Amino acid sequence: MGLIVQKFGGTSVGSAERILNVANRVIQEKERGHDIVVVVSAMGKTTDQLVSLADEITSKPSRREMDMLLTTGEQVTIALLTMALQARGYEAVSYTGAQAGIVTESRHGNARITQINDEKISENLAEGKIVVAAGFQGMDEHGEITTLGRGGSDTTAVALAAALKADKCDIYTDVTGVYTTDPRYVKGARKLAGISYDEMLELANLGAGVLHPRAVEFAKNYHVPLEVRSSMHEERGTLIEEESTLEENLIVKGIAFEDQVTRVTVCGLPNRLQTLSTIFTTLAGKGVNVDIIIQSVTDQDHASISFSVKTADLEDTIEILEKNKSMLNFSKIESEKGLSKVSIVGSGMVSNPGVAAEMFSVLAEEGIAVKMVSTSEIKVSTVVNQEDMVRAVESLHEAFELSGRKASIS
Amino acid sequence: MGLIVQKFGGTSVGSAERILNVANRVIQEKERGHDIVVVVSAMGKTTDQLVSLADEITSKPSRREMDMLLTTGEQVTIALLTMALQARGYEAVSYTGAQAGIVTESRHGNARITQINDEKISENLAEGKIVVAAGFQGMDEHGEITTLGRGGSDTTAVALAAALKADKCDIYTDVTGVYTTDPRYVKGARKLAGISYDEMLELANLGAGVLHPRAVEFAKNYHVPLEVRSSMHEERGTLIEEESTLEENLIVKGIAFEDQVTRVTVCGLPNRLQTLSTIFTTLAGKGVNVDIIIQSVTDQDHASISFSVKTADLEDTIEILEKNKSMLNFSKIESEKGLSKVSIVGSGMVSNPGVAAEMFSVLAEEGIAVKMVSTSEIKVSTVVNQEDMVRAVESLHEAFELSGRKASIS
């Protein structure tokens, strides 16, 4: 008996039929004696439809009005799910973000939650009601409707769980948990029973996609135990906690990868203190996300800087740099498309020297050239040719003993 | 220069293209130097779509959750219209009912407005902004989202006009104004330049359909001048005011009519004081709307009561009466389908005796039998056979000099 916050994403509530299915999952936990708060996203393609309506009106809608428009999506879902619960004979009540007491900054389109006034929800829970809250949205202190940006519904769920001191926050999604690597690419990929916040954060940032990094960070800061699990299957998912006590003998927990990476090298830069900050401030100011950065000094006066960007950002990157050529004072720009990033993640690395070295050996044995390297305490990322990506992941998955020979706990 | 509240219904905002057209109408008035508040309904078929979604979930959705669901409709429209105005370079801001300060009773599905907190809108108007508010919706004192029921958007517009002391409330619709009678049936039907609140109220109640009676009543109570006009054409519409100064020589202003009327007669009732109230309380309790009522005493102990209902309600009516036969103590029920109601309306009747008599003469000359009669100070209603309806309207329209011989002022 405790309080559980359940979050269901857009696919899980994509039709009336699926909403009825979600109602079943909610009732299941309720019947186990738990208090339940449900956080839902907009139905499947609703958001896309609203965006294209706006597009028919203007190519540059204001952020405030986009928030006004898009927040109707979750409002529809909370009403329908609450009707479904009521039709099954359960007391339930729906709340928009504003009504749920989600207070945010006054930044439309990408606001952060600053406060949660949970009196109303707490009262309803005490009365035995199931509370259904709209994800992704809130209200600022002036009564303006705001949205939380990407991963917003995950963040709403975790924030409510933190405010209400929930025992657990279950993130229902279309996969059954967090895997050692993407099972669509690697046969031996296996669901993890447990993983730490930091490991999940690295995996989430590296594009594992199940959970938004922001929500994981929030969960870590407020010590909210998360479980990523399937909305379609009964099986247990992956538990995300401070220190995962499960499978702790694994040094590497997961392998993340992404393609469409390009390396850009800016050559013949003056070897000055400000060079690095000037280049990346310029790029960030124009919205280009730079990932791995490597600086090398060619001679006493000159340096070159390599960095990786998404291939889709390459044109913008070069245009911005060329525009600022006189200020940045470089000689030329080189770029190499067709690359991928492959990363190993695991908090065991901190106490196990030589993990990076083992990674490089494995790749060398496979004849895979490493173009760039970046490390953190619990992660090693490498950039390799795109055609080597899957082979790199598979061989690392095998070498670090992640493959299915050890049965999943679930 | 003044403040105008403009209201556009669901058909007028039925697509992105139409919303852009509405933006033009708004800008036109703004450019004349007026401050503008726009009230809009949900786009065309949105409400129907939402209702059928709810229907897929449950056949008996709670009123609270229906309000939660349906209010998203207007919220989409306010966002899109505001984007359209902004795209044209005008400062504009959208508000949900709650944000616009529309406070209502705590009755979901059919709440009345109890208060309007207009500080925010007044501030925005002072800053030169166009305010776009969601019709049909409000919030009760507990922060619950409510809806105003049928004709809700008209009521929102009039209520805002009253609170803001607007100079005028323009109701844009798909007809060009209020007509002497329905132009689809009577060729000579002619748009009225002006009409009084009371006359409009009788016409609205009699099914003229352009404007909800509740909104007219509100306008009358708060002395808000209304204009019913077309969202597609430029021409002036019909002005509705306390005492219409236009066309005041007309005794009859308009002729309303509706078909699908049935007369029900309950025979052999005990001639007691409570009989009337018992019958109609029983019917009202079951949601049957009774229109004209006629009581006749057959002998000292017995009375019969005739009343008219919509033909669609006939089955329910008979079922309810039969169920309560022992309590009501009647001998039998008779009913006559295939009837219509034809009414003449005009505040000039009060000071002109004999208008009813003239009506009956006209009908008699046409050989039309009058089955029931009901009168008020500014209205005479008759029930006639359905096949006589259009001929009755045409002959009355001619007899009371409503036909187009006198040109409309617009």
From TrEMBL, chains A, B:
<keyword id="KW-0677">Repeat</keyword>
<keyword id="KW-0418">Kinase</keyword>
<dbReference type="Pfam" id="PF00696">
    <property type="entry name" value="AA_kinase"/>
</dbReference>
<comment type="pathway">
    <text>Amino-acid biosynthesis; L-methionine biosynthesis via de novo pathway; L-homoserine from L-aspartate: step 1/3.</text>
</comment>
<feature type="binding site">
    <location>
        <position position="47"/>
    </location>
    <ligand>
        <name>substrate</name>
    </ligand>
</feature>
<feature type="binding site">
    <location>
        <begin position="173"/>
        <end position="174"/>
    </location>
    <ligand>
        <name>ATP</name>
    </ligand>
</feature>
<keyword id="KW-0067">ATP-binding</keyword>
<dbReference type="GO" id="GO:0005524">
    <property type="term" value="F:ATP binding"/>
</dbReference>
<dbReference type="InterPro" id="IPR001341">
    <property type="entry name" value="Asp_kinase"/>
</dbReference>
<comment type="pathway">
    <text>Amino-acid biosynthesis; L-threonine biosynthesis; L-threonine from L-aspartate: step 1/5.</text>
</comment>
<feature type="binding site">
    <location>
        <position position="179"/>
    </location>
    <ligand>
        <name>ATP</name>
    </ligand>
</feature>
<dbReference type="InterPro" id="IPR036393">
    <property type="entry name" value="AceGlu_kinase-like_sf"/>
</dbReference>
<dbReference type="InterPro" id="IPR001048">
    <property type="entry name" value="Asp/Glu/Uridylate_kinase"/>
</dbReference>
<comment type="function">
    <text>Catalyzes the phosphorylation of the beta-carboxyl group of aspartic acid with ATP to yield 4-phospho-L-aspartate, which is involved in the branched biosynthetic pathway leading to the biosynthesis of amino acids threonine, isoleucine and methionine.</text>
</comment>
<dbReference type="GO" id="GO:0019877">
    <property type="term" value="P:diaminopimelate biosynthetic process"/>
</dbReference>
<protein>
    <recommendedName>
        <fullName>Aspartokinase</fullName>
        <ecNumber>2.7.2.4</ecNumber>
    </recommendedName>
</protein>
<feature type="binding site">
    <location>
        <begin position="7"/>
        <end position="10"/>
    </location>
    <ligand>
        <name>ATP</name>
    </ligand>
</feature>
<dbReference type="GO" id="GO:0009089">
    <property type="term" value="P:lysine biosynthetic process via diaminopimelate"/>
</dbReference>
<dbReference type="InterPro" id="IPR005260">
    <property type="entry name" value="Asp_kin_monofn"/>
</dbReference>
<comment type="subunit">
    <text>Tetramer consisting of 2 isoforms Alpha (catalytic and regulation) and of a homodimer of 2 isoforms Beta (regulation).</text>
</comment>
<keyword id="KW-0028">Amino-acid biosynthesis</keyword>
<dbReference type="Pfam" id="PF22468">
    <property type="entry name" value="ACT_9"/>
</dbReference>
<keyword id="KW-0457">Lysine biosynthesis</keyword>
<dbReference type="GO" id="GO:0005829">
    <property type="term" value="C:cytosol"/>
</dbReference>
<dbReference type="InterPro" id="IPR002912">
    <property type="entry name" value="ACT_dom"/>
</dbReference>
<dbReference type="InterPro" id="IPR045865">
    <property type="entry name" value="ACT-like_dom_sf"/>
</dbReference>
<feature type="binding site">
    <location>
        <position position="184"/>
    </location>
    <ligand>
        <name>ATP</name>
    </ligand>
</feature>
<dbReference type="InterPro" id="IPR018042">
    <property type="entry name" value="Aspartate_kinase_CS"/>
</dbReference>
<keyword id="KW-0547">Nucleotide-binding</keyword>
<keyword id="KW-0220">Diaminopimelate biosynthesis</keyword>
<dbReference type="GO" id="GO:0009088">
    <property type="term" value="P:threonine biosynthetic process"/>
</dbReference>
<dbReference type="GO" id="GO:0009090">
    <property type="term" value="P:homoserine biosynthetic process"/>
</dbReference>
<comment type="similarity">
    <text>Belongs to the aspartokinase family.</text>
</comment>
<feature type="domain" description="ACT">
    <location>
        <begin position="344"/>
        <end position="410"/>
    </location>
</feature>
<dbReference type="InterPro" id="IPR054352">
    <property type="entry name" value="ACT_Aspartokinase"/>
</dbReference>
<dbReference type="Pfam" id="PF01842">
    <property type="entry name" value="ACT"/>
</dbReference>
<dbReference type="InterPro" id="IPR041740">
    <property type="entry name" value="AKii-LysC-BS"/>
</dbReference>
<keyword id="KW-0808">Transferase</keyword>
<feature type="domain" description="ACT">
    <location>
        <begin position="264"/>
        <end position="338"/>
    </location>
</feature>
<dbReference type="GO" id="GO:0004072">
    <property type="term" value="F:aspartate kinase activity"/>
</dbReference>
<feature type="binding site">
    <location>
        <position position="74"/>
    </location>
    <ligand>
        <name>substrate</name>
    </ligand>
</feature>
